[in-house]
Automatic annotation (TrEMBL):
Pfam entry (one): Fic
Keywords, alphabetical: ATP-binding, Nucleotide-binding
Stored InterPro entries: Fido, Fido-like_dom_sf, Fido_containing
Any GO MF annotation of the entry: ATP binding
Protein name per the record: Fido domain-containing protein
Active site: H78
Keyword match ATP-binding: yes
Boundaries of every Fido domain copy: 1-139
Binding site for ATP: D82, G83, N84, G85, R86, M87, S88, R89
Entry-linked PANTHER family: FIDO DOMAIN-CONTAINING PROTEIN, FIDO DOMAIN-CONTAINING PROTEIN DDB_G0283145
Length: 184
Protein backbone atom coordinates (compact mmCIF):
# COMPACT_ATOMS: atom_id res chain seq x y z
CA UNK A 1 0.00 0.00 0.00
CA UNK A 2 2.74 2.43 0.94
CA UNK A 3 4.58 1.59 -2.29
CA UNK A 4 1.38 2.34 -4.24
CA UNK A 5 1.07 5.65 -2.39
CA UNK A 6 4.65 6.65 -3.14
CA UNK A 7 4.41 5.58 -6.78
CA UNK A 8 1.10 7.35 -7.36
CA UNK A 9 2.29 10.59 -5.77
CA UNK A 10 5.78 10.62 -7.28
CA UNK A 11 4.76 12.99 -10.08
CA UNK A 12 2.31 15.00 -8.01
CA UNK A 13 3.52 18.10 -6.24
CA UNK A 14 2.38 19.40 -2.89
CA UNK A 15 0.06 22.34 -3.26
CA UNK A 16 1.69 25.71 -2.76
CA UNK A 17 -0.94 28.20 -1.56
CA UNK A 18 -3.31 27.89 1.36
CA UNK A 19 -6.35 26.07 0.04
CA UNK A 20 -10.03 26.44 0.81
CA UNK A 21 -12.61 23.89 -0.17
CA UNK A 22 -15.63 25.42 -1.84
CA UNK A 23 -18.87 23.64 -2.64
CA UNK A 24 -21.71 25.33 -4.47
CA UNK A 25 -20.17 28.78 -4.00
CA UNK A 26 -19.85 28.52 -0.22
CA UNK A 27 -16.62 27.98 1.65
CA UNK A 28 -16.67 24.57 3.33
CA UNK A 29 -13.24 24.25 4.90
CA UNK A 30 -9.90 26.00 5.03
CA UNK A 31 -7.00 23.60 4.74
CA UNK A 32 -3.79 23.73 6.73
CA UNK A 33 -0.85 25.83 5.65
CA UNK A 34 0.88 24.43 2.59
CA UNK A 35 4.24 24.54 4.34
CA UNK A 36 2.99 21.96 6.89
CA UNK A 37 1.79 19.45 4.27
CA UNK A 38 5.06 17.54 3.62
CA UNK A 39 5.63 16.90 7.34
CA UNK A 40 2.03 15.78 7.89
CA UNK A 41 2.15 13.50 4.86
CA UNK A 42 5.42 11.94 6.01
CA UNK A 43 3.85 11.24 9.41
CA UNK A 44 0.71 9.86 7.78
CA UNK A 45 2.72 7.39 5.68
CA UNK A 46 4.73 6.38 8.76
CA UNK A 47 1.52 5.74 10.73
CA UNK A 48 0.03 3.78 7.83
CA UNK A 49 3.16 1.64 7.53
CA UNK A 50 3.08 0.98 11.28
CA UNK A 51 -0.63 0.12 11.31
CA UNK A 52 -0.28 -2.27 8.36
CA UNK A 53 2.79 -3.95 9.87
CA UNK A 54 1.06 -4.31 13.24
CA UNK A 55 -2.13 -5.67 11.65
CA UNK A 56 -0.28 -8.22 9.58
CA UNK A 57 1.92 -9.32 12.50
CA UNK A 58 -0.98 -9.73 14.93
CA UNK A 59 -3.65 -10.83 12.42
CA UNK A 60 -5.94 -8.30 14.06
CA UNK A 61 -7.43 -5.66 11.83
CA UNK A 62 -10.59 -3.66 11.44
CA UNK A 63 -10.41 -2.91 7.70
CA UNK A 64 -13.21 -0.34 7.84
CA UNK A 65 -11.58 1.73 10.57
CA UNK A 66 -8.15 1.43 8.95
CA UNK A 67 -9.44 2.51 5.53
CA UNK A 68 -11.62 5.28 6.94
CA UNK A 69 -8.80 6.68 9.10
CA UNK A 70 -6.36 7.04 6.21
CA UNK A 71 -8.97 8.25 3.72
CA UNK A 72 -10.14 10.86 6.18
CA UNK A 73 -6.68 12.08 7.14
CA UNK A 74 -5.69 12.31 3.48
CA UNK A 75 -8.80 14.35 2.66
CA UNK A 76 -8.26 16.63 5.64
CA UNK A 77 -4.59 17.26 4.84
CA UNK A 78 -5.55 18.13 1.25
CA UNK A 79 -1.94 17.80 0.08
CA UNK A 80 -2.37 18.37 -3.66
CA UNK A 81 -3.80 21.16 -5.78
CA UNK A 82 -6.14 18.69 -7.47
CA UNK A 83 -7.14 15.05 -7.10
CA UNK A 84 -7.25 14.86 -3.29
CA UNK A 85 -10.68 13.20 -3.14
CA UNK A 86 -9.78 10.67 -5.83
CA UNK A 87 -6.49 9.82 -4.12
CA UNK A 88 -8.25 9.45 -0.77
CA UNK A 89 -10.88 7.12 -2.24
CA UNK A 90 -8.11 5.08 -3.88
CA UNK A 91 -6.42 4.73 -0.48
CA UNK A 92 -9.74 3.70 1.06
CA UNK A 93 -10.51 1.13 -1.60
CA UNK A 94 -7.02 -0.36 -1.79
CA UNK A 95 -7.14 -0.97 1.97
CA UNK A 96 -10.68 -2.35 1.80
CA UNK A 97 -9.87 -4.61 -1.13
CA UNK A 98 -6.76 -5.98 0.57
CA UNK A 99 -8.23 -6.47 4.05
CA UNK A 100 -12.01 -6.80 3.51
CA UNK A 101 -12.08 -8.24 -0.01
CA UNK A 102 -14.30 -5.62 -1.63
CA UNK A 103 -14.56 -2.00 -2.73
CA UNK A 104 -16.85 0.68 -1.36
CA UNK A 105 -18.18 3.20 -3.85
CA UNK A 106 -19.52 6.70 -3.19
CA UNK A 107 -21.17 9.38 -5.26
CA UNK A 108 -23.50 7.33 -7.45
CA UNK A 109 -25.84 10.32 -7.59
CA UNK A 110 -25.95 13.88 -6.25
CA UNK A 111 -27.63 12.85 -2.99
CA UNK A 112 -25.04 10.13 -2.39
CA UNK A 113 -22.25 12.61 -3.07
CA UNK A 114 -23.81 15.15 -0.70
CA UNK A 115 -24.16 12.49 2.03
CA UNK A 116 -20.51 11.49 1.58
CA UNK A 117 -19.31 15.09 1.75
CA UNK A 118 -21.47 15.83 4.81
CA UNK A 119 -19.93 12.91 6.73
CA UNK A 120 -16.42 13.99 5.74
CA UNK A 121 -17.20 17.60 6.69
CA UNK A 122 -18.49 16.61 10.16
CA UNK A 123 -15.31 14.63 10.74
CA UNK A 124 -13.28 17.60 9.54
CA UNK A 125 -14.46 19.71 12.46
CA UNK A 126 -13.25 17.04 14.89
CA UNK A 127 -10.00 16.63 12.91
CA UNK A 128 -9.13 20.30 13.29
CA UNK A 129 -10.06 20.28 17.00
CA UNK A 130 -7.85 17.23 17.64
CA UNK A 131 -4.90 18.30 15.51
CA UNK A 132 -1.68 18.39 17.53
CA UNK A 133 -3.73 17.96 20.73
CA UNK A 134 -4.55 14.25 20.53
CA UNK A 135 -2.12 11.41 19.83
CA UNK A 136 -2.63 10.00 16.30
CA UNK A 137 -3.92 6.57 17.38
CA UNK A 138 -6.41 8.16 19.79
CA UNK A 139 -7.91 10.56 17.26
CA UNK A 140 -11.60 10.07 16.53
CA UNK A 141 -12.31 12.30 13.52
CA UNK A 142 -12.59 9.29 11.18
CA UNK A 143 -15.15 7.31 13.25
CA UNK A 144 -18.29 8.75 11.68
CA UNK A 145 -16.81 8.10 8.26
CA UNK A 146 -15.92 4.52 9.29
CA UNK A 147 -19.59 3.91 10.16
CA UNK A 148 -20.58 5.41 6.80
CA UNK A 149 -18.09 3.16 4.95
CA UNK A 150 -19.44 0.12 6.80
CA UNK A 151 -23.02 1.10 5.90
CA UNK A 152 -22.13 1.67 2.23
CA UNK A 153 -20.10 -1.56 2.12
CA UNK A 154 -23.00 -3.56 3.53
CA UNK A 155 -25.33 -2.15 0.87
CA UNK A 156 -22.79 -2.86 -1.88
CA UNK A 157 -22.27 -6.42 -0.68
CA UNK A 158 -26.03 -7.00 -0.48
CA UNK A 159 -26.38 -5.74 -4.07
CA UNK A 160 -23.58 -8.00 -5.28
CA UNK A 161 -25.18 -10.93 -3.46
CA UNK A 162 -28.49 -10.13 -5.17
CA UNK A 163 -26.82 -10.00 -8.58
CA UNK A 164 -25.09 -13.31 -7.98
CA UNK A 165 -28.34 -14.97 -6.88
CA UNK A 166 -30.22 -13.53 -9.85
CA UNK A 167 -27.52 -14.76 -12.23
CA UNK A 168 -27.64 -18.23 -10.71
CA UNK A 169 -31.45 -18.33 -10.93
CA UNK A 170 -31.32 -17.33 -14.61
CA UNK A 171 -28.99 -20.23 -15.27
CA UNK A 172 -25.97 -18.15 -16.15
CA UNK A 173 -22.81 -20.18 -16.29
CA UNK A 174 -19.80 -19.52 -14.11
CA UNK A 175 -21.89 -18.05 -11.30
CA UNK A 176 -21.23 -19.66 -7.96
CA UNK A 177 -23.25 -18.70 -4.93
CA UNK A 178 -21.71 -20.39 -1.94
CA UNK A 179 -22.83 -18.63 1.23
CA UNK A 180 -25.27 -16.14 2.65
CA UNK A 181 -24.01 -12.57 2.96
CA UNK A 182 -22.29 -11.67 6.20
CA UNK A 183 -24.27 -9.41 8.53
CA UNK A 184 -22.33 -6.29 9.46
Amino acid sequence: MVTLWRASTARMRWRSPTASLVRRRSKVNTCMRASAVPRYMKELVEHLTGDITNAENTNEIDPYTLAARYHHHSVMLHPFSDGNGRMSRIILNVLLLKYAGHLSLFGSDNQDKDDYLAVVRRGGKVFHDEDMEVEFQKQTSHRGFARYVLFKSKRSLESMWGWAKAGKEKGQRNVQVTQEPVNV
